[in-house]
TrEMBL record:
It comes from Persephonella atlantica. GO terms for biological process: methylation. Residues 44-138 form the Methyltransferase type domain. Keywords: Methyltransferase, Transferase. GO terms for molecular function: methyltransferase activity. This is Class I SAM-dependent methyltransferase.
């Protein structure tokens, strides 16, 4: 079973208070560290049920959101319709294998997707091609953990990342880090799993 179908199964129960709080912290830190304005065009890779995008949408011109799970995107579409949001486009597409014709985004965001990717450094290099000069990329994901976060590690390629790993990816792409920090902690089975945010700028 592919990862999209796995997330289809949990889509209707996916949204929790903890995920909402994580999304709020993500958007709060984006607004504090990037000069986001109403002219910004944003790409979200692995948008899921769209919690981050819905919170971010009032501050930007447009968001183009991608995910592999039709079930997750159905939940996202319901939210957008209910709230009357007009500046989010939702697409079922694997950006890394299929590509996308539009370029010159001001910001690319991705939340809790990198630990599912075979090669995060290569993914960042692909993301860079969608950014305009002076554009930003923002990644949140699990800090290094021992493999106990997921009850099923079938689609998990990495047990989180430490700061040096993420900086090494950026070095390969030529993008410059402007922020790194632990912005949230997920409580699960009596343990805390830190979540980091890293933001980088494409200088050329």
């Amino acid at each position: 079973m592919d990862i999209g179908k796995r997330f289809d199964k949990v889509a209707k129960e996916y949204d929790t208070q903890d995920k909402l709080e994580r999304s709020k912290q993500f958007v709060k830190n984006l607004l504090e560290n990037i000069p986001i304005n109403r002219e910004f065009k944003v790409m979200d890779i692995g948008a899921g049920t769209g919690t981050v995008d819905i919170l971010l949408s009032p501050y930007v011109k447009e968001i183009v959101a991608f995910d592999l799970s039709e079930g997750m995107l159905d939940v996202f579409r319901e939210k957008v319709k209910k709230e009357g949001i007009k500046n989010i486009r939702i697409l079922k597409k694997d950006l890394f294998s299929e590509g996308f014709e539009e370029k010159d985004f001001d910001l690319v965001i991705t939340s809790m997707t990198f630990h599912h990717l075979d090669n995060p450094a290569q993914a960042l290099n692909q993301i860079k091609e969608y950014l305009k000069a002076g554009g930003y990329v923002a990644v949140i994901d699990l800090y290094k953990e021992d493999g106990t976060f997921h009850s099923d590690n079938t689609d998990v390629k990495h047990f989180g990342f430490d700061e040096r790993e993420v900086e090494s990816w950026l070095k390969k792409t030529g993008m410059e880090k402007i922020f790194y920090g632990i912005i949230h902690s997920i409580k699960k089975s009596g343990r805390d799993y830190p979540v980091f945010l890293i933001i980088a700028i494409k200088n050329r």
